Amino acid sequence: MKKSRTKLQMKLKLHLIKKSQTIGLAIVSLCLFSMATVAQETHVLKFDTSIADDATFAVWQALQAVNQEQLSKITFEKGIYNFYPDRAAEKYCYISNHDDALTHIAFPLNNANGLTLDGQGSTFIFHGVIIPFLIENSQHINIKNLTVDWAMSFHSEGRVVANNATQKTFDLRISPQYPYEIRDGQLYFIKEYYEHDMNQAIMYNPEKHCIAYDTDKMTPLSLQKKGSTQFHVEDIKYKYDIHHLNTLHRNQNQQFCMTAEQLEPGLVRFHNTKKQVPTVGLQLICKGSQDKNRVCPAIKCADCNDVKVNNVTIHHAGGMGFLAENCANITLDHYRVLTSQGRMVSTTADATHFVGCRGNVNLLYCDLENQLDDAMNVHGTYEKIINCLDNYSVGSQMGHFQQQGFCLAQPGDTIGLIRLSNSFFPYNKLTVKTVDFVNGHYNRIVFNEPLPDELQPGDLLENLSAYPHVTVDHCTIKHNRARGLLISTPKGATITNNYFETEMEPILMPVESSSWFESGNAADVLIRHNIFQDGTIAGKKRGVIRLVTDDNNRNIAFKNIEVSENTFNRQDAMLLEINNVDGFLFKNNVINTSTNYKPMFPNAPAIVIHASKNVKFEKNKYNGIAKTLLDVDPTMGKLKFK
Amino acid sequence: MKKSRTKLQMKLKLHLIKKSQTIGLAIVSLCLFSMATVAQETHVLKFDTSIADDATFAVWQALQAVNQEQLSKITFEKGIYNFYPDRAAEKYCYISNHDDALTHIAFPLNNANGLTLDGQGSTFIFHGVIIPFLIENSQHINIKNLTVDWAMSFHSEGRVVANNATQKTFDLRISPQYPYEIRDGQLYFIKEYYEHDMNQAIMYNPEKHCIAYDTDKMTPLSLQKKGSTQFHVEDIKYKYDIHHLNTLHRNQNQQFCMTAEQLEPGLVRFHNTKKQVPTVGLQLICKGSQDKNRVCPAIKCADCNDVKVNNVTIHHAGGMGFLAENCANITLDHYRVLTSQGRMVSTTADATHFVGCRGNVNLLYCDLENQLDDAMNVHGTYEKIINCLDNYSVGSQMGHFQQQGFCLAQPGDTIGLIRLSNSFFPYNKLTVKTVDFVNGHYNRIVFNEPLPDELQPGDLLENLSAYPHVTVDHCTIKHNRARGLLISTPKGATITNNYFETEMEPILMPVESSSWFESGNAADVLIRHNIFQDGTIAGKKRGVIRLVTDDNNRNIAFKNIEVSENTFNRQDAMLLEINNVDGFLFKNNVINTSTNYKPMFPNAPAIVIHASKNVKFEKNKYNGIAKTLLDVDPTMGKLKFK
After folding, report:
1. Which residue in A239, A480, A582, B430 is a FRET match for A8, CA 20 to 30 A apart?
2. Which residues, at least 6 apart from A6, have a Cβ–Cβ distance to it below 8 Å?
3. What is the pTM of this model?
């Protein structure tokens, strides 16, 4: 026994060094007792490749042994390190825009202050359901020089090798990289510690390594249909509104209609497709049901200030690449989301996502490619007032099941009271005394001021203090599903010198209040010197830059938007959708025709303008395919494209 | 708006009274601010029936507003109160012998000291997945005079109205009390906030209101079989042992074989049964898959001292009635687990369960009936040593997936090091410095003493400090599935004046190390003045009182057991199974023949004795059916039944 214990101590070797000492001189084996003697010092943790087989417990033990507030640096000798859930920290995590779950965490960082984590060029390989970096309540954090990947992906891929439009079948060739089983007629891809079904599928073009043209005709696959037999289920009356998309309710009164049949090992025929059968030669990508497939963002920061991520590559994540909740001042510089291991797909959700953030959010020199959702999404959260509890407090509820557990505000924040049917802007404002967590769906919010008389249940709460200024500069955004930039902030955005080539619209600025309840609008936006290549190729009739609301009214939502000196290489007619804007300048832009794809909506107007004012066009060059340039809401008077 | 707010305040009305004042004089509306002014007082919370529609948020808000350490009493005006999860506290709960889950809690009590909760005869009706009472880190707690029930049960029932042994079908008549749906050929019972499938089924005899004779021939139903198609799944190699019974793995490589077909609303035919088709006239009970059906014990206490439950009736729970983890000194007096609403079943798991408890555990004048598992289960937990981390600490792992998150010991506790192949008793002992939670499956345990040289990974850890003395007196235990008393404690047990009528053995004292890893043995046990009626009716060949181990060796596990002055009204031959005992006295007992059931194993010996010593029989009267009275291990020499 002694022998194996000594071996383990060797494997756990890491270096604990006072900052004032020369690195490498003082080598201390990890030990709770020896750590305690230097608790008031500034610490450096150095890990070497002796722990590469499974670095998880060594990292856990080292982080346990130090006061994280005093930890200034964590370094890894350059190498490939594996991380497993088996001996990782565990915590139930509410994760915005993800599925909340009991999950494991490789780097549980909390209350750190002034910490640099330097991978020194290392690659971290994760296995199963484990969040690489969960950073909470911390300040001045710098993560750099590392690469994140998973041994097995949270999505799966297969090549369409045959189809039969009459029989409504198609055949998929699946490589041993994506093990599967068929049970009860359904195909499940089996992973380490995880599995998923054929839900949330999309087609990729393997030659172009991007989303397939017109995939919306083929995907998603419509695995299920209504129509199971029910007996007295309708007698079950809920006292309160329930979330019909949660795991319990989304599958009730549904049954599978598409079935899978293995023709030979690695070759599976799918029967009873509802949409157009997938085209032979395309790569089918799927990641399973929406309520189960977002479990592991690569980096999540919550309640952190001044976070920098430099020279970090995320090859994969079972969710988003970088997610910040209620943080201030975040810069991602040379942050890259890129595929690996021959996969078509990088992360299975957004490359970056910012909710309730403030200060400055910057993406600089980033490559955000092949992820299965937006390159960047910046927004707040609308919560609905359910009831008034007394003269100073309300009960509020999250709108989307994947936002449960989110904390709307900090004490002192200004909350806008919104009734979207009247205005996108608040009819009144209150400041927060406390937000008291009751459960993931329901909070008590206590204000410093009495509730105004006009307040009604159903009105929305918006945290006006929690929006950032956004800068996106010198980034490449391409080959992903969904949007490029989805930005909802009234604090301004500077979008310059970027390259966009996305499946949906490259830039969307919405007021979104019907599905995800992602709050915010847009003001003081500069979009300059960008190249927009193709875009909107999957089947939706959309422009390249869109300012839209979910509410069909004439109220102003967006202000002071400038789009200038950009190049649009556009394969389709639609270019701009401008709704509910006061102040839109489109100047010095060049619109060329791209022949990379056949236009889907050649007869659409290039520019649609509705319920807006102070819209100007100056010195643009239009060489696109649209026959009609401007489609302007008649109440707005005459407008000219110049 | 003002109007509805006032109404709400009325609904939330509860009374906050300084203990010195006459109850009813000082009526204070619940309010965070006014509460703050009396935070140093001893508090009484009085709830009245104005909150009966949904008492959850009023209770939450009141408990939030007080310092629970200062709370001496909570009372409810007699009435029927509803509790819903929607506005209840929420917490991820590790619950021993249950499924860990994010759950809601109606009464989240923590750090209370000297609290009496008096229902004054009220009934609390729960809706969905919500734990009524979760009491943690508290002392001197008294819960009394209340009844717990659920609006919809976590199990379901249906009457067998036809069967066809040739076709392997049976038909179930289901009442609107148990709404269902059939999807993908499977029947799911649908509840408020919950559903379950046909797993874990058992037959009840509706006339006798107890488990059906010989149900083991018919149930469980074998819903699934092996044999789905797999492709390269075997290539997935896990670095560490995985729990094959967890939700992910238990369903892989399985598919449904039994199918459901609705013949008419409320009448469902099941095809392809594997066992004997269920007998017409019996009531089929099912509660769904083992990994999902234990989510809501009625009362859970953890890390509490001196808990009393008086005059409390539990009609139902989605799990156990009363569960104590790591508690000391618990008395259940006139605690009742009884059916309601015409159901065959009360709680879906044990009526009472005690793990890692110490001091005295007393069941006095309890009625424990119709629950779907043991009336009482008392045990510790074996954890397996996975690896040695340094000279003082080990990594340890829980053996069963439903024990994850359990904390083995407190600082100062004595831990036995066990190698069951050598002895049931420790080969060495250590005392605990800390138990550090890494994750639900894996802990770091640091000892005050260096690890002994003979320690090996695979050895078990047993907390020798965490066993109670058990008293069960004047209790009625009947009509439940499984055992009566399952007691594993070396600190002694007194079992007197009880009535037993159970499906499996009335009293089991095991060393259990192969499935649930429930530790403990038995010593100084007195079983006197009890009536054992029938028992072991479901199909298993078992005695009435059993002392058994999972390990087939001759080591002594149990010491000093006296069984005297009991009446056995026994329908079958087997009476006692005595293994690995040193000191067993069977005296002044009367064994009669019951004709309530046909004997299943009439040729079995009455008493089987193996690997035991100092066994004595004195002054018993045997009028049972066994042809052979004693079957004694030949190495033990001659023994006579007297």
Report:
1. B430
2. none
3. 0.93
